[in-house]
Design brief:
The complex is a heterodimer of chains A (357) and B (83). Chain A is of the alpha/beta class and 357 residues long. Helix content of chain A is 32%, strand content 16%. Chain A has two domains: 6-219, HUPs (Rossmann fold, 3-Layer(aba) Sandwich), CATH 3.40.50.620; 251-353, no CATH class. The radius of gyration of chain A is 24 Å and the shape is elongated. Chain B has helices at 24-33, 51-62, and strands at residues 13-17, 41-46, 65-71, 76-81. Chain B has a four-stranded mixed beta sheet with strand order 1-2-4-3, covered by helices on one side. Classes of the chains: A alpha/beta (357), B alpha+beta (83). The structure holds iron/sulfur cluster.
Chain lengths: 357, 83
């Protein structure tokens, strides 16, 4: 770990957790302005709202979207390391020691994991002297409470090498403050849900155009997404997932007529294109007589199930009011068959089949 | 440093990031570049349109030189000189 105390006069190195949102941006800036050598770290868990989903839906493609973490790094003039933690993060999602927040968000375990990971990240073979987060006591997620702050510091192994510049004045002085690496008088005592102090500080730094994510920083805080993930675990009888599973939960309508299979129906061209990348691994249906979505079938459908699936696919095609729609059912083995079906009537589609509400 | 022209104007290493969605192409680029020496050139090919924004931004943030940034019929191609 980053203890190069023999070099007492060299600038201290800090790893700033950068989510792409305002708070972590401000926290890094406050410390950077004190002459500390700050580098940004951004963790890609697979659940991040940032990044890829905008590339899937066509309507979002036209709007040039940026990676907010990279944008923040560029504004601050710091390096940013984006770390793939997809595999390691699984254990956090599946077995959070401190449990979940409102949905399937294991925020407290997640913070502990990220702080630990940042501190032990050897970028360019040099460690970091301390870690910076944008946490503010009393803010939204469960993890940001006065009593959880010491838990994160302790269980991450960072101890008092964890500095929260935005609420430091509400906490005991940390090592960087006691050693004079940063001046405590120039840190802040923000608390609660009021965002005005952060916005005022952003103004003072001249930041504009920063991202203001509506929910949390990841899909696990999203009720519908969490519903789909819980459904996946229940249907498979095992709490597990791989990267493709969690990507597919972000795309399409998920309809489960029976426990042993579900449909993933593309909602527009971008989603259909994305889903078509999975054609070789899933039974899938495309409509032939009418323009329609690509539908993947996840699970073990019987022939009878495939007829119902075809009727559902037809219901979401241009032929939804036609007497008959013809579809092709393709199997991963390469065989396919044509079916002519009556589109499912809206009244026949049970509301409970819609996964995630 | 001698006065010779840079020996690595052509890519010495390639990265196929086709089919990966952002930020994975950037992550793979970063991991690859970490193993290269200063002056070496990496070619990256990717399909997610997000790379058009993210790869140049990542290069700017790290000071690497983007020698080629090209949109082709089916993909995007970049040449990055390691700084
Ligand atoms: S919202 Fe997601 S990424 Fe953010 S702390 Fe909670 S679990 Fe972690």
């Amino acid at each position: 770990m980053g203890m190069h105390d023999k070099n007492a006069n060299a600038p201290k190195r800090a790893a700033a957790l950068i989510s792409g949102g305002l708070d972590s941006m401000l926290a890094a800036k406050v410390v950077l302005d004190q002459g500390v050598d700050v580098e940004g770290i951004n963790f890609f868990t697979g659940f991040c709202v940032e990044g890829h989903t905008h590339a899937i839906r066509k309507k979002d493609r036209s709007r040039q979207k940026r990676n907010n973490a990279l944008w923040v790094a560029e504004q601050l003039g710091i390096k940013l390391h984006i770390i793939d933690v997809i595999d390691e993060y699984k254990d956090i999602v599946l077995n959070p020691k401190h449990g979940y927040g409102a949905n399937l968000n294991p925020c407290l375990d997640c913070k502990i994991f990220m702080v630990n990971k940042a501190l032990t990240q050897d970028v360019l073979d040099r460690g970091f002297d301390f870690v910076i987060t944008g946490e503010v006591i009393g803010q939204r997620p469960k993890s940001q409470r006065a009593d959880t702050m010491p838990v994160i510091a302790r269980e991450s192994g960072a101890g008092d090498r964890l500095l929260r510049p935005l609420c430091a004045l509400n906490l005991p002085p940390t090592l960087p403050e006691r050693e004079g690496w940063v001046d405590r008088d120039k840190l802040f005592g923000f608390h609660g849900r009021d965002r005005k102090p952060q916005m005022a500080l952003a103004d003072a730094f001249g930041f504009s155009d920063y991202a203001q994510p509506a929910g949390g920083c990841c899909f696990l805080t999203d009720e519908r997404y969490a519903g789909k993930l819980a459904d996946l675990w229940e249907a498979r009888g095992v709490r597990d997932y791989d990267f493709d599973d969690i990507m597919l939960l972000k795309v399409g309508r998920h309809i489960r007529p029976a426990p042993h299979y579900k449909l993933i129906v593309g909602r527009e061209e971008g989603e259909n294109n994305f889903l078509s990348g999975y054609r070789r691994r899933f039974v899938h249906i495309n409509t032939v007589s009418h323009t329609g979505p690509l539908t993947l079938i996840d699970g073990e459908p019987t022939d009878g199930d495939l007829v119902l699936a075809a009727r559902i696919a037809a219901r979401y095609s241009q032929g939804r009011t036609a007497a008959e729609v013809s579809v092709n059912v393709h199997h991963p083995s390469g065989t396919s068959s044509e079916l002519r079906v009556a589109p499912l009537l809206p009244t026949e589609l049970e509301p409970a089949w819609h996964v995630g509400g | 440093m001698s006065g010779e022209p840079s020996p690595h104007t052509r890519p010495t290493t390639r990265l196929d990031a086709r089919g990966l969605l952002c930020p994975l192409p950037v992550i793979r680029t970063q991991d690859k570049i970490r193993k290269l020496k200063v002056g070496e050139v990496l070619e990256v090919v990717a399909t997610d349109p997000g790379v058009l924004h993210d790869i140049p931004a990542w290069c700017r943030v790290h000071g690497h030189r983007l020698l080629v940034s090209e949109q082709r019929a089916d993909d995007y191609r970049f040449h990055i000189e390691v700084a």
